TrEMBL record:
The lineage of its organism: Bacteria, Pseudomonadati, Pseudomonadota, Alphaproteobacteria, Rhodobacterales. This is Holliday junction branch migration complex subunit RuvA. Keywords: ATP-binding, Cytoplasm, DNA damage, DNA recombination, DNA repair, DNA-binding, Helicase, Hydrolase, Nucleotide-binding. It comes from the Bacteria. The RuvA-RuvB-RuvC complex processes Holliday junction (HJ) DNA during genetic recombination and DNA repair, while the RuvA-RuvB complex plays an important role in the rescue of blocked DNA replication forks via replication fork reversal (RFR). RuvA specifically binds to HJ cruciform DNA, conferring on it an open structure. The RuvB hexamer acts as an ATP-dependent pump, pulling dsDNA into and through the RuvAB complex. HJ branch migration allows RuvC to scan DNA until it finds its consensus sequence, where it cleaves and resolves the cruciform DNA. Signal peptide: none annotated. It is found in: Cytoplasm. InterPro entries: DNA_helicase_Holl-junc_RuvA_I, NA-bd_OB-fold, RuvA, RuvA_2-like, RuvA_C, RuvA_C_sf. Has three domains with a flexible linker between the domains II and III and assumes an 'L' shape. Domain III is highly mobile and contacts RuvB. Residues 1-62 form the DNA helicase Holliday junction RuvA type domain. Its main location: cytoplasm. The keyword Electron transport does not apply. The gene is ruvA. It comes from Pseudooctadecabacter jejudonensis. Residues 65-142 are annotated as: Domain II. Homotetramer. Forms an RuvA(8)-RuvB(12)-Holliday junction (HJ) complex. HJ DNA is sandwiched between 2 RuvA tetramers; dsDNA enters through RuvA and exits via RuvB. An RuvB hexamer assembles on each DNA strand where it exits the tetramer. Each RuvB hexamer is contacted by two RuvA subunits (via domain III) on 2 adjacent RuvB subunits; this complex drives branch migration. In the full resolvosome a probable DNA-RuvA(4)-RuvB(12)-RuvC(2) complex forms which resolves the HJ.
């Protein structure tokens, strides 16, 4: 299994890139969001990858974080969502956006992705809602990644540690704290997702306070 590709970016196409790794070129398909985040051709680049294996086809799909890759794998497990649709959803919402939409049951947000209809979006929400807290918790086990300075000449294909952005880490810390307070994974995830949606830059302490307000008994 090819879990990560690091090397020199040779070119960008409409839906894929070519990465040179010690003289071997790897075609990696990416979402619009990932494509926009990549450097110019000739620069060093590293992407986490998922390999799709079919009888007549091998395709690599690239992601900037392992959290994003995990959402891709989960989305692909939903009948009616293939690799193209999964990349469309991630491209439209981003990894954190997908997590919030799934946790909050916001099928309309998922359906904004090109080629994804309401029926498929609702199916994704139904099948993945109980898994949102697991993906969110991944950020709490993450460490920052760096691209080797000499990636153009000495880069290798390798497996690496989990990586997630700082806002994902804040949400993971908040989820852990609510779990320690006795809240169930589903209700905690939904509250944190709602709080993060209202204040995307919130740190863990702010998310916890906001989530506790949302979870407080009404009336």
């Amino acid at each position: 299994m090819i879990g990560r590709v690091a090397g020199r970016l040779e070119y960008k196409a409409s839906d894929h890139v070519l990465i040179d790794v010690r003289g071997v070129g790897y075609v990696v398909y990416v979402s619009d969001r990932v494509m926009a985040s990549l450097p110019a051709p000739g620069d060093a680049v590293a992407l986490y990858t998922d390999l799709l294996v079919r009888e007549d086809l091998l395709q690599l799909f690239g992601f900037t974080t392992l959290v994003e890759k995990e959402w891709h794998r989960l989305l692909m497990s939903v009948q009616g969502i293939g690799a193209k649709a999964s990349l469309a959803i991630l491209g439209a919402l981003g990894a954190d956006g997908v997590g919030r939409a799934i946790a909050l049951g916001d099928w309309a947000a998922v359906a904004t992705a090109k080629g994804v209809g309401p029926k498929t979006a609702k199916k994704a929400i139904l099948e993945l809602k109980d898994k949102a807290h697991t993906v969110m918790a991944m950020a709490g086990q993450s460490s920052a990644a760096s691209t080797p300075a000499d990636a153009g000449s000495d880069a290798v294909i390798e497996a690496v540690e989990v990586v997630a952005p700082s806002d994902g880490l804040a949400q993971a810390d908040a989820l852990s704290a609510l779990g320690n307070l006795g809240y169930g994974p589903s209700e905690a995830t939904q509250a944190i997702a709602q709080a993060a949606g209202e204040d995307p830059s919130a740190d863990a302490a702010t998310l916890i306070r906001a989530a506790l307000k949302l979870l407080a008994p009404k009336g």
